[in-house]
Amino acid sequence: MSQTIVRTVLGDIDPATLGHTQPHEHLLSDLSRPLPSRSTVGERAIDNAPITLENHYRVRRRHTSEDLRLDSVGVAVDELRHYAEAGGSAVVDATSIGLGRDPHGLAAVSRRSGVHVVMGCGFYYRDYHPADVTTRDRDDLAAEIVSDVRTGVGGTSIRAGIIGEIGLSHPLHPQEEKVLRAACAAQRETGAALMIHPGRDPRSPGRALDILVAEDVDPARVIMSHVERTVFSAPEMRAIASSGCYVAFDLFGQESSYYSLAPIDMPNDATRVDHIVDLIDGGYASQILISQDICHKTNLVRYGGEGYAHILEHVLPLMRRKAVSEAQIAQITVANPAHALAFAG
Fold first, then answer.
1. What share of residues in the chain are helix, strand, coil (percent, to 5)?
2. Could you list the residue ranges that cross the membrane (predicted)?
3. Could you tell me the fold of the domain covering 21-30+70-344?
């Protein structure tokens, strides 16, 4: 008889032991390809420059190549130790294929920090696809995802525990649709949760959910990421939740309205919590996930950022101030991610 497990880079664990979990972070990743064109000599000069107090704000807004590379096991260990001291127990590294995924590095980070790490698999959006994704068919892509979950990544015995983040654009590119349908097939076969990075358009989550339903994927096994940069009203968020999927507010700590990747007015943490309160009031507390999506050096404490403990240190007190109960906080930060990540091993 199969046992329900959470699959970490150091092995399978009981979901009941997971503790406070942030289900969308990055510990080791490389988002530096592709970058927007640098129009001036000054911009090109700063692209690989060290991050300093003098350039921190500009780098955080513009996201230089240096900012977009999280490539140090030692730095990741130090940052996660602070997270653990604040009460953090587990994180999902949502780095998928094409983003510099490093299974050996993640295993070392987990072992040295004492924090459970769940590794992602599948493919990010089209600009990051390996060249061969164009010619491979859906079944072949699905087989690779299944192997990552069941056997190990890239010839290692280190296994992924979640499918995603699967990157989508808007309009959805045919290559991304092929990848998404492959991920659906892999989800049905493995039972692992499927995490979607929707395109930066309010129509993208609905388009993705239509495909998931057509592919016979249970929406309760789906995490819709980045809702707060994709839709901006309570009715839109309730509409996504009404599908049955998890609704992930995973950009906590990004407090500036400026968004470098699209003409979007970003909310702050207080607005995120207000949306969460509305979803709780609507009966969707069991479908809410929260995280930070740290993927830049300027997010890290070492470089003057908020660090992985931001939710524990600052957001949970904010939630309490806005009358979110301790039981609801525990559900959102412990029970929901444990349930989302659990599958039959």
1. 45, 15, 40
2. none
3. TIM Barrel (3.20.20)
